[in-house]
Structure formats: C-alpha cells, structure tokens
Amino acid sequence: MVKSQLTGKVTSVSCEDLSNVLDRSDALIRMTAKALDIDVEGQHVSCHDALHIMRFFAGGKGEQNQLWSEQSSKLQAAKAREFEFAMALEILKRERASLDKQVELLTEQLARANHRSDRLEQKLHDLTASFAHLVSQRDRLVAQTKIKSTTSIKQHQGRDVLYLERPVNLHLLN
User: Fold this and answer.
1) Nearest-angstrom CA–CA distance, 170 and 164
2) For residue 32, is it within any domain?
3) Is 119 domain-assigned?
4) Structural domain tally of the chain?
5) What 8-state DSSP symbol labels residue 171?
6) 151 contact partners, CB below 8 Å, separation of at least 6
7) pLDDT digit string (tens) for 64-113?
8) pTM (2 decimals)?
C-alpha cells in the first residue's frame, strides 16, 4: 500500500497485497487487471481499480468463467489465424516453386528460339549471297552472249527469217 504524504490516506494497492487478500496468484491478478482495462503502474493499482478487481472476484465464478472463456476464445482465434497464415505461406511457397520452374522452362524455350533464329538468319544470309552471285553471273553470261552470238536475216520460202549464228546455249535449241 502506498500512502499519500499530505493526507496519509492510501492511494494505491500493490498487486501482491491484492493476491494475498483474494487468495489468487499474482499473474491472475495482472491478467484480470488487463482484461478489465486497468493500468498497473509499477506493481500497484489505484484504490478504485483495486475495488473493481475485488468486485470481479467477489462476483462469483460466472464472471471469472466468462473472462476465462473470452481469453480462451481469443487464444483459439489467434491459433486459427496462425494456422491460416501457415497454410497461406505453404501455398505461396508452392506457387513460387511452380513459377520458378515455369521461368526455367520459358528461359530454355527462349534460348532455343534464339538459336533457331540465329540459324535461320545465317541461312538467309547464305541464300542472299547465292542470289547475288547468280545475278552477277547472269549479267556476265548475258554480256558474253551478246558478244559471241550473231544474227542475220535470210530468205526462206519467200519470207524473212532471223537466224542466230553461234548461240551460247546450244542445249536450248535441241
């Protein structure tokens, strides 16, 4: 008990004194004070708050059972919430592993597509070079045909006929 120096009256009661008077444990007194929204300041509660605690315990087992059931339900709710969080965490871990595998598969697929693209690009380059070579050869062959081939107009059965003499591609005439 703490007495005021001016008046000599008791202003607060220690939790230990309350536990001795009520024949309850100190921890139960503190838990009850917390449940009743009573501030415990340095092992002491005010006289008014001590009366509330004493009334609570004097009221019978009904209020104590109610407090016990409230605390039990809060504990069960906390355990249920903890279980839900654990399940959500496990689901997230599985989803993450699945997404990691999917990323690996897509990375491999991208690498194969890039390799195929590079290979096709090289083939396109080779084909373009072949066409360029053929075009340059065609121009050279056409130039040679103009130089070597000669034409003349002759009369055949009363008509003028154009004759190609010394053709470059004899295989086309057969």
Assistant:
1) 11
2) yes
3) yes
4) 2
5) G
6) 162, 163, 164, 165
7) 677 788 888 999 999 999 999 999 999 999 999 999 999 999 999 999 99
8) 0.38
